[in-house]
Amino acid sequence: MESQKSDWHNRSEEALTTSLHVDVKRGLDKAEVQRRLDQYGPNHLTPRRGKNPLRLLLEQFNQPLVYILS
Question: Is residue 10 part of a domain?
Fold first, then answer.
């Protein structure tokens, strides 16, 4: 497979399916799915931690207009 830093959005569908070794009508077979899962891991994003509620409250007052009007 090609590098992840490629310009995938500029490629045609035929070029993508050829470079990724995918059949559009059939998809990947189970062996290929397992191989890619083992190689790249599951396709999920780790959730970002939310901000502390106290920090959110204090950031509301850290605005230039608040300082000008006070």
Answer: yes
pLDDT (tens place) for every residue of the chain, 70 residues total: 444 567 888 989 998 888 888 888 998 899 999 999 999 999 888 888 888 999 998 888 888 888 888 7
The contacts of residue 51 (CB under 8 Å, 6+ apart) are 59
Judge whether 65 lies within some domain: no
Q: Are the CB atoms for 16 and 8 separated by under 8 Å?
A: yes
Q: What total of structural domains would you count in the chain? A: 1
Within a domain: 49: no
Q: Token digits for 27?
A: 């998809």
